[in-house]
Amino acid sequence: KNQVEQSPQSLIILEGKNCTLQCNYTVSPFSNLRWYKQDTGRGPVSLTIMTFSENTKSNGRYTATLDADTKQSSLHITASQLSDSASYICVVGSKRGNNRKLIWGLGTSLAVNP
Amino acid sequence: DAGVIQSPRHEVTEMGQEVTLRCKPISGHDYLFWYRQTMMRGLELLIYFNNNVPIDDSGMPEDRFSAKMPNASFSTLKIQPSEPRDSAVYFCASSLEAGRPSNQPQHFGDGTRLSIL
pLDDT tens digits for A10-66? Predict the structure, then answer.
């Protein structure tokens, strides 16, 4: 069964600290892995998209890594800011012929406190 | 540039009533997606369109749900009759993929928070 599991479920850190969020998946065939940020009351916003051949991608203070062999990804946030408080969702894309699917994790809820 | 626009932002109605959610995708985008988000199940894809044509509706929970895309700038998701278990946040997203490398991001609206009493 195609699944995406994220950990931790929630996390509280102090402003200025770094943190790493984890994503494990069992999706086949694998096409791509995405990280989205969702602020409370808003729609998700794309942070990074990685294909099988990419093992790291950055977007400002956000750096995503991908290990396709172990089927793991991480999202590292550097020098956190209050505005980083949000839910971070890992999404794995699968494509078979012309049909494609995105399998969404339940997200990690991050709170950055002053 | 205007993003994906959804209306209404909030909808409260009684069980059995018809509910219509509306979406205007980003101009020029060729894919449109409808999602439902709940705490327990996260984001679930209901249906998606390519160039106004429904491609995969396997996520539509039952016949009470229907979606249309009469033109490139408008889509509706209808629930008739509505039930309390349909209460959730419904998102519309669009993407532009024609002529581009695969794996383009989806751009989401801010959702419709639906409560069925």
Answer: 999 999 999 999 999 999 889 899 999 999 999 999 999 999 889 999 999 999 999
Do B23 and B110 touch, CB atoms closer than 8 A? no
Tokens of B65: 């749900």
Alpha-carbon B86 to chain mean position: 13
Rounded to whole angstroms, how far apart are CA atoms A65 and A43? 23
d(CA B19, nearest CA chain A) in Å: 21
As a whole number of angstroms, the distance between CA B108 and CA B117 comes to: 27
Written as one string, the DSSP assignment of B35-100 is EEEETTTEEEEEEEEETTEEEE-TT--STTEEEEEEETTEEEEEESS--GGG-EEEEEEEE--TTS
Query: Would you say residue B79 has pLDDT above 70?
Result: yes
Closest C-alpha to B91, from B108, B74, B106: B108
Which of B84, B89, B103 lies closest to B37, judged by CA?
B89
d(CA A86, nearest CA chain B) in Å: 14
Long-range residue pairs from A98-101, CB within 8 A, at least 24 positions apart, any chain:
A98/B55, A99/B55, A99/B56, A100/A31, A101/A2, A101/B45, A101/B56
Q: In B54-63, which positions are buried (b, 16+ CB within 10 angstroms) versus exposed (e)? A: eebeebbeee
Q: Is A105 on the interface with B (CB under 8 A)?
A: yes
